[in-house]
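can u do me a favor
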């Protein structure tokens, strides 16, 4: 046996278990707070779960950091032996244990989705969780949002809204300050507006009367029947012709989605100038048939 082989064997035999442990430590990952790591759920305890992320010891997920959902079976959100992403919220303690959160990672991803939805202008659904002086609080997949009273359709009996699902638009989404403000009113308007088209006969109720025209409530959005669009003849007084709460049918003659304006007309339903003043009830009773004739003219304008 050569002296070279002997030296090699001596060198190998001197590499003890302590040396092996130190070598492992040298190759350990350096886990830092705020880092996203992948780990396999190892087991559950009463107050949390243990996850193998390849560290010196199992990492720990406290019960309140398991999920953004307020309730549910852990086996659904943290299935055993399944690899998931986690956020490190506390670095190694004296015993080498790292604290993780699945909840905060979910919330970050939900905020990212919310910001995208706000930019797209799309509506979404939320559940009303509580009531306060200014409006209602809602739950959006674990995020707490707020709808001001002025942006609700039901503004009087707010308690009746608890546990109801509302369709809303996002007014403000600020992840940094955990601020989420929503509007049911804007979502209803957008939905109602999308269902309108030029030349359509609509039915609503008189909501307000001004010297220049009548505002018609069309299930959440307001349409303007200008004084010049009431009749082919001159109108002296709108208050003498209409009253608040009165049902009214009219044709859509202009739509400005950008400004949210709906222009209406009843003069296009007349068979002769002044018919709306003299025989409004007859015009309203046969509005559908009259609208067929008027639609072609409106679309040609």
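np, heres the sequence
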């Amino acid at each position: 046996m050569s002296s070279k082989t002997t030296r090699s064997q001596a060198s190998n035999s001197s590499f003890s278990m302590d040396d092996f442990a130190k070598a492992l430590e040298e190759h350990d990952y350096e886990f830092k707070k705020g880092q996203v790591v992948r780990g396999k759920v190892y087991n559950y305890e009463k107050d949390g779960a243990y996850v193998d992320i390849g560290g010196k010891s199992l990492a720990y997920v406290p019960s309140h950091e398991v999920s953004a959902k307020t309730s549910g079976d852990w086996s659904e959100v943290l299935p055993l032996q399944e690899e998931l992403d986690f956020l490190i919220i506390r670095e190694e303690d004296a015993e080498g244990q790292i604290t993780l959160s699945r909840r905060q990672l979910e919330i970050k991803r939900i905020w990212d989705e919310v910001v995208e939805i706000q930019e797209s202008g799309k509506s979404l659904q939320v559940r009303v969780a509580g009531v306060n002086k200014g409006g209602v609080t809602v739950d959006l997949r674990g995020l707490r949002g707020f709808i001001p009273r002025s942006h609700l359709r039901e503004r009087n009996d707010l308690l009746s809204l608890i546990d109801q699902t509302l369709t809303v638009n996002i007014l403000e989404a600020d992840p940094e300050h955990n601020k989420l403000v929503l509007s049911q009113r804007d979502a209803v308007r957008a939905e109602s507006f999308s269902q309108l088209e030029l030349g359509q006969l609509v039915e609503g109720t008189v909501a307000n009367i001004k010297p220049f025209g009548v505002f018609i409530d069309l299930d959440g959005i307001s349409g303007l029947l200008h004084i010049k669009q009431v009749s082919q003849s001159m109108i002296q007084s709108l208050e003498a012709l209409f009253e608040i709460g009165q049902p009214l049918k009219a044709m859509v003659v202009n739509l400005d989605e950008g400004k949210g304006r709906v222009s209406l007309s009843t003069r296009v339903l007349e068979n002769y100038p002044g018919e709306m003043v003299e025989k409004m009830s007859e015009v309203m009773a046969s509005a559908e048939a009259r609208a067929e004739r008027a639609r072609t003219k409106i679309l040609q304008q």
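Residues 28-101 form a domain with the OB fold (Dihydrolipoamide Acetyltransferase, E2P) fold (CATH 2.40.50.140). hope that helps!!
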